[in-house]
Amino acid sequence: MSEEDQLPMLKIDAEDKKGDIRSKVWNYLADNNLSTYPRPPHRRISNFKDANIAGDSVASLDVFKNAQIIRIDPDKPLEQIRFKTLEAGKSLLVPTPRLKNNIFSRIVPPADCSPKLLRGCAARLGVEEFSEPVDVDDKIHVDLVIVGCIAVSSKGWRIGKGGGLSDLEYAMMASLGVVDSKVPVVTMVHDCQVLNLKDDLFGSHDLPVDYIVTPTRVIECNGNLPKPKGIIWSMLTQDRLNHIPVLRRIRFREWKAGNNVALDGETENPVELSDTILENDEGDEKVGGYRGKFQRRERRRKQPEEGGNAGEDNGKDKERSDDAQRSKNNRRFNKKRQFRSYKNKRFNRKTSENDGENRQDGEERPRRIREDGDEQNREGGRNNSESGRDGSGGNRGYGARGGGNRWSGPNRRRPINEIEGSVYVGSLPRSLRVSQFKVKVRERKVTPLRVLWRGSSGFAFLNFKTQQDAEEALVALEGLEISDRALKLEMARSGSDRARRPRGARLSNQRNSQSEGEAEADEEERAD
Description:
Mean pLDDT: 76
Oligomer: single chain
C-alpha cells in the first residue's frame, strides 16, 4: 500500500460553499505534501504529484487523438498535455495574456524545434514568446477543450480557483461559434480532488466537464450537464469589461446582431457601441500582468509618427514633451525623497536643520546624539561609544543601520546571547500562519521571547530566556494539536543553538576545544 493510500480522506460538509471547498482542497494538498512547484498551492490551479502521468493519460484518449485544434489552459499541471499536443503536430490554442483584443493565441514553435525547446514552448515562457494572436473574427472551430480545476465531481461539476475566468472564456468561445455543446471538455486533477459536490452550488454559467483524468484513472462523467451557450451579459459589470477588453469587442458584435447586451444594473439595451482595438502597449499599465509591472515603472513615451524632415515646430514640441516628462519624473523622485526624510524622523536628532547650510568646507559632519548620550556618525550610524563594540548593538548586525540601541524598544528582537532555552515544534501544517500558531501557544499560557517561524517547512522554534522556562513551556504545550494534527514537541538540540551563534564564537570554541584536546593528549603521553 502506497503512502497516498494511507492518507485520511478529504471531507467536505453539506453547508460548505465553493470558497470553503477550495480552502479545504488547498490545505489538504499542502498538509499532505501532494502539491509540487509552484508552492504554496493556494489561490491558483494547484500543481500536483504525478501530473505528468495524468497528462500522458489524456494523450491516450480517443477524444485527444481525433482532435486537431485543442484549446488548453496555461496552468502548470497542464504543461505535459500542452507538450504532447505540440509533439503530435496538433494546433495548440491558449488564452491570450490579459485577454485584450483576442480570447486565445496559437502556439507556433520555430522550425526544426528540438524536444527541449518544444517543451519550453509548452511552458509559460513559450506562451509569451512563441504565440500568434487569433482574431475574434477568424473562423475557427475547436475540437477539444482542456481546463484545470480545484475540485470536481464524478457527475461533471467543477470548481475553479475563483473569479469565473474559465467559465467566461468558454462562454466567449460559445458566443463566437468557436465551440458547441458537442465539444468535449477534459480536466486533470489529483485523485483527492474528486469529490461529491452538490448541484445547488452551480448555475447556468458554470462549465461542466465530460472527462476527469487523474494519475490513476480516467472518469467519464455521466451527468449530461448543459454547457454555457454564450455570455450572460446581465451577470457582468462595466468594471469587468474594463479589465477584460476583448469582452467589449464581443459585446459590440452581439449588439450589432440584435441581441440584448445590457449589463448588470442597466435596464435597457445600449443605443451605441463601438469596436475598440487596443494598441500593443495600451492597457498594460492598468493590468498587473507578466509585463505590466515593468511597463508601469518605465513610463515609456510615445514617439510622434510623422514623416518628412523635422522642423523647428517639431523640435519645440519635442522639447516641451521632454520638459513635461522630466517634470513628471521629478515629482515622482521628490516623493521618494520625502519618504526618506520621513523615515529619518525616527532618529532623535539634537542638531539644527540648518547645520548643513552653515557648515563650512572641511568641517566635520554633525553627529547624532541618542537619548542615552552616545554619539553616532551621520553616515552608517556607527556607534563611537565603547559599549557599542561588545555585541550589544553598535558596529555589528542591525546596529549598523543607526538609530540607537536595537534592543531598547519593547517590541525589538532579543539578542541571541539573551536566549538560553528553546523548544522545537514540528509537524506543523504548512498552511498554518504564524499568527494562528501564536494564538494556540498563548492559550496554553506560554509566552516565548521570540518565535523562529519556519512554517513552510513544517516546524518552528520557541526561544526562552532560561532553560527552565523552556522546560516549563514544554510541559504546558504537551498534547497540543492544530487542525487535528498532533504536534511534535521537544527541547531544541544543541546543534541548532550552535548554528545560530555568531561565527566568531564558534571558531573560538573550536580552537579552545582543539587546544584542550592537545593538552589532554600531552598529559597522557607524560603519564605513559
